[in-house]
C-alpha cells in the first residue's frame, strides 16, 4: 500500500482558499499528498537536482553538478528518517507493481477530495503519469494537482491541457532538462512556475508569487515560487534572499 500524508505547513493554507472559493471546508483526511524520493525519482530535474545518499546508515545530501538551488525535499529526507523511509517505500511499491492504476485505486479511498502529487519527487516514467490520468477519470470527485519537470512525458501525451480530464492539473516547472519544450507546451494550454529568490525578481518577471499552492491548483497563468528550504553556503553567497 502507498503511504500518503496530510497537508503540510504550506499546502494546509490551501484549505482556507478552498473554503472561500468553493464554500466547503475539507477535513485533513480529505486532502492528502503523495511523495517520492527527491532527485532519484525526478528524471527531468536539473537546477534543483539534489538527492539523498545513504552510506554507513547515514543520510547525506548530494548536490549534482547542475544544481543551482537545493531541493528542499532532499533536506527534509536528511532531517527526518520516517519521511525518507515513506518516500522510498512509495517508489518501491510503484516500481514493483504490475498494475499502478489498481495500486492507486486500492490505496486511496473515495473520501479523498484533493491530492497534491509530489511534494517530493515527480513522474518518474510515462506509465506512471498515465496511471494518474486514468485515476482522475475513474475518480471524478477527486481533484489532483502537481508540478512537473517531466515535460517530455507531457509532450508524449500529445494533448492540450484542456483535453485532460478536468480534475487533474499539471503545471510545468522551470529549471529542468526539458525547458526547451515549455514554449510548445504553453501553446497547448499548460502553465508554468518558476523559482525566484525574492519579490523583486518576481516583479521584474511580471509573475505573481504563489504562497499557498492556490495558483498551482486553480490558477490559469504562469506564476513564481519563492526559494525555500536549507540552501548550501555557495547558493546563499551567490544569490541571497532579498
Could you name the key traits of this structure?
242 residues; alpha/beta; 7-stranded parallel beta sheet; two-stranded antiparallel sheet; 9 strands; 36% helix
Q: What's the topology here?
A:
Blueprint: H1 13-22, E1 31-34, E2 50-55, E3 58-63, H2 72-79, H3 81-96, H4 100-107, E4 114-117, H5 126-138, E5 143-148, H6 151-157, E6 168-173, H7 182-186, E7 192-196, H8 199-205, E8 208-209, H9 214-218, E9 223-226, H10 233-239
Parallel strand pairs: 1-4, 4-5, 5-6, 6-7, 7-9, 8-9
Antiparallel strand pairs: 2-3
Average pLDDT, rounded to a whole number, is: 90
Between the first and last Cα atoms, what is the distance in angstroms?
43 Å
- Give the C-alpha Rg: 17 Å
String of helices and strands: HEEEHHHEHEHEHEHEHEH
Instruction: Indicate how many domains the architecture comprises.
Output: 1
Assign a percent range to the helix content: 25-40%
The structure class reads alpha/beta
| Shape category | globular
Side-by-side strand order of the widest sheet: 1-4-5-6-7-9-8
What's the main sheet like? 7 strands, parallel
Stretches with pLDDT under 50, minimum 5 residues: 236-242
Amino acid at each position: 500500500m502507498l503511504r500518503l500524508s496530510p497537508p503540510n505547513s504550506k499546502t494546509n493554507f490551501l484549505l482556507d482558499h478552498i473554503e472561500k472559493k468553493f464554500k466547503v471546508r475539507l477535513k485533513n483526511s480529505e486532502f492528502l499528498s503523495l511523495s517520492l524520493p527527491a532527485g532519484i525519482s525526478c528524471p527531468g530535474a536539473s537546477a534543483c537536482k539534489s538527492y539523498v545518499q545513504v552510506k554507513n546508515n547515514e543520510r547525506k545530501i548530494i548536490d549534482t553538478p547542475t544544481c543551482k538551488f537545493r531541493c528542499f525535499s532532499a533536506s527534509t529526507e536528511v532531517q527526518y528518517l520516517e519521511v525518507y523511509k515513506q518516500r522510498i517505500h512509495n517508489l518501491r511499491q510503484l516500481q514493483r507493481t504490475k498494475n499502478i492504476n489498481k495500486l492507486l485505486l486500492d490505496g486511496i479511498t473515495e473520501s479523498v477530495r484533493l491530492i497534491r502529487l509530489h511534494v517530493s519527487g515527480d513522474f518518474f516514467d510515462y506509465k506512471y503519469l498515465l496511471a494518474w490520468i486514468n485515476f482522475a477519470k475513474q475518480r471524478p470527485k477527486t481533484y489532483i494537482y502537481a508540478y512537473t519537470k517531466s515535460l517530455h512525458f507531457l509532450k508524449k501525451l500529445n494533448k492540450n491541457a484542456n483535453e485532460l480530464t478536468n480534475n487533474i492539473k499539471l503545471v510545468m516547472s522551470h529549471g529542468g532538462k526539458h525547458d526547451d519544450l515549455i514554449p510548445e507546451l504553453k501553446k497547448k494550454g499548460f502553465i508554468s512556475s518558476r523559482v525566484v529568490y525574492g519579490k523583486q525578481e518576481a516583479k521584474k518577471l511580471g509573475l505573481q508569487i504563489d504562497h499557498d499552492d492556490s495558483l498551482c491548483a486553480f490558477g490559469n497563468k504562469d506564476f513564481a515560487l519563492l526559494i525555500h528550504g536549507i540552501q548550501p553556503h555557495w547558493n546563499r553567497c551567490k544569490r541571497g534572499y532579498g
